């Protein structure tokens, strides 16, 4: 029985790889990134397919299209300019810190320059993008959750550089290298199906965000670094990256927001450590594995991790070996050199009755774990379903249901218990925060997606105290509306 299962798995991998190889078109300059790479959440989710997206994105999916052929002429000369806008409204219906409505938004501009038509140098790509952020943080002002309600909930307002890199492809882009100011969370640690959801935990998760300097190099922050994508054989893709570990350039603990510490996105610091990331991606057609009579069931399985060479504070002990919560503590945490995290991701279509659009259903799971000495969160998991074309008369709509949770590290939990014994003010027993999200992504016009959203946060902030009421913050019920426009 085990041999039969193993043989089917190997067959699925081989057939998926052969399908990928047959369908793969010649690669573009330095693996042209999708324009949705700059979106941290609520990403338009394409219908699942075994065919790689290796062709230029057309203008028929944008609001303005190709006026008078200007964009086509620019593309012929290697120039692509994209403009995207996101508007969000959030209403806290119950629980949290306070009820009420909050607005936030972002505008993102991206310029790609293909070196082949510009200079004759093949497989080179120059990329620069900038972000304008506005509005207020519903999470910080009204909820108090560990994971923000949206990837665009950046707790600040400014205009900043996002990415600035040059990419070069080799051997028909079987090797693709990018060098410059990069944002690793557009490629590493990504679940494509999870990117549909708005809660930031489904993008760059809460575990690395809580444990790395400045939340780690993630949207809207970026860091100097180099990354390489290697395709040794077409079912397999390997990502490796080495970069600065601190997008703010500031200390681990700071009273300032990350945007205030690096307001323009041009502060480059190498003072704390180096972050090395690696990930192996495997493309699989599960239809071959289960001998399904229907169409292809594409999936991507990933295994990865990172190591940060910086110094990280102990979550329970000070430099003298005393408890940080004790009255005789010097208040200076013991520092540990190095930090790490491992993760696994499964994105898998399991229902595709027609073999093509419009109906399909997929599942995703992402699990991550790390050490407990120097990390406030040591374990996280997200899982959910996405459904294409099941809304009557709305074949392009996507429905999603997902859940996520973050759990404390052992020393962070013990610190909480120490604080309770010491009688610290405003301290309550620590609990794991859970969030459930139901979302509906609906294209309403070329380039315009509207996405109603509902989230329920259980054990907000791990069970924090609401100082205005003197009681634990209640579970929050939140309604949201996201509108994403691609011009």
TrEMBL record:
Q: Which InterPro entries match?
A: Carb-sel_porin_OprB, OprB_Porin, OprB_sf
Q: Which GO terms describe its cellular component?
A: membrane
Extent of the signal sequence: 1-29
In its UniProt record, a GO molecular function of this protein is: porin activity
Which BP terms does GO give this entry?
carbohydrate transport
Say which domain of life the source belongs to: Bacteria
Entry keyword set: Signal
Q: Which Pfam families match?
A: OprB
Q: Which family does it belong to?
A: Belongs to the OprB family.
| Family matches, as PANTHER family | PORIN B (PTHR37944:SF1)
**Protein's name according to its UniProt entry:** Porin
Question: Which organism encodes this protein?
Answer: Acetobacter aceti
